[in-house]
Write the structure tokens for this entry.
Amino acid sequence: MSGTFVGIDVGGTNVKIGLFDAELKLLSKTSVTTDADMGPQVVIDKMARTVETLLTEAGLSLKDIVAVGIGTPGPAKYSEGIIIRSTNMPKFKNVPICRMLNEKLGAPIVFDNDANVACWGEYAVGAGKGVKDIVFFTLGTGIGGGIVSNGELVHGCDENGAELGHTIIYPDGRLCNCGQRGCAEAYASADSTARRATEALEAGAESSLSKVLDEKGRITSKDVYEHLASGDKLAKEITDGTAKALAITCINMLHATEPKRIVFAGGMIAAGEVLLDGIRRFFNEHVWTIKTESIEICFATLGEDAGIIGAAALAQYVKRRERGPR
Amino acid sequence: MSGTFVGIDVGGTNVKIGLFDAELKLLSKTSVTTDADMGPQVVIDKMARTVETLLTEAGLSLKDIVAVGIGTPGPAKYSEGIIIRSTNMPKFKNVPICRMLNEKLGAPIVFDNDANVACWGEYAVGAGKGVKDIVFFTLGTGIGGGIVSNGELVHGCDENGAELGHTIIYPDGRLCNCGQRGCAEAYASADSTARRATEALEAGAESSLSKVLDEKGRITSKDVYEHLASGDKLAKEITDGTAKALAITCINMLHATEPKRIVFAGGMIAAGEVLLDGIRRFFNEHVWTIKTESIEICFATLGEDAGIIGAAALAQYVKRRERGPR
């Protein structure tokens, strides 16, 4: 199968766009401001113009596009191609993004949420390559999730599945932004890791982090992992809490869709091997003893391009399966 | 598609066998003792003879069989047709049950674990009919699980997926038979429900159940639900614990594979609506508030025939998909 695939990663601030060849090799990419406050038509026109510019620069034209993949934050009716609403793009309400983009570009549009798209990218060409079952977590402000089971993304009955940050690990535990108590996200996202450290300091815990809080007025998860490296006891406690919460979530997914590989992405993986080591340690401590598991826990490899690569890869997959656009 | 399907449900004590027509209508069924201590060849010969007897009685012969479905407890390599070992059938070690049965019956054999088979039965013709995504729990000695996602059973990378009784709901909680702490099974199986009541009585709790313990020497989950009905306070506490553990597990599966319907089966569902009401109450109390969920929580409808119906239905499905035997 020859031809060009386009991957679009829509964020509240920037839209990233990449052109890929039939082997998913990146031909060129760019990033433009989203200008979400200008409303959907302006944003989508700009996306389409940017795609055309990239094509022209590459000596290609609209007719070379086989399919376009696009990822946005939810909630959306992905299979119907409609963004229901968006926290970061308040003017986007019930926007038929697939139809609008198709009118401009002509090619079929494949649409999914940003976490699923990044998950698919890792599955197709990144850290999940070579296996049929993966589970994917992004550790950022919240915790996003994705599941590939037997080579297919799990969407769920209303396309709200794989919200793995909202699986509960401590019933009646910390309040999560979603309204539940005890979600993994309430403990182990980058924001929750920083917040738990801040709360401990405010409650009087001794730590080298108090100087950071005093000077900067806030603490980030990056600060916590830096102070862990320099031997701070509170940082150890807090990051152990993060690792344990993620490990329990991994065990629960092992007993649900049984991934061969669990892939962590997102800003907090900058913490490095110490994060993975912690997750593996608590995983081994809490997982069942009746059989040895050969599950692999690792970092994503696609970095910041995961969104555009995943979108293009998903477009290619759906096209190959000849399902047509979702 | 015309022709006959056979469903076989292998338990440690009895083997149930059913003949079904192409619409999965039960033509006839029987139950024979497993005689597991006679070893695999004897057991499989007996299964085959029993199938032949049922066929003859129905005016049919081996050539009328389109496919045979069989469910056994794990662990097994289902896709390779091999029982690795069995707690209830100690002489069954690395038994190529599909090949051995195929040699006797000629027809293709479709093999899966007993919980997956029962789950598929409910999905195909029982409580899960009409939707594409279900989660299934059997509440017995342990808690078995099954997942149908987008119309397909979830097996996982090593065919050990959907062990939902071993998802952890209370990290560092009660010790489970599997070696983990805090599994759903350690709280909410029929056995664990009875055990928690017994432990409370032994610790001095006041309850009308103490008379049962004194007289019978043991308590069952049936006793606990009977005493709940007559207003016993301890029985309320214990059954609330069961319902809450199951509700948290349901919420976690909502955020994983997002079933439209969650189906409960197994001996403990004899407790009736009070069990479902409890699960729904804790589900609604603990589930997120950012959107309204339309998940249905209900009982299985196939009863004791779930194993043979599910096996026949799975055989039909696999045959229809022309994947050949698994």
About this structure: The CA atoms of residues 23 and 129 of chain A lie 14 Å apart. Chain A has two domains: 4-120+304-320, 130-301.
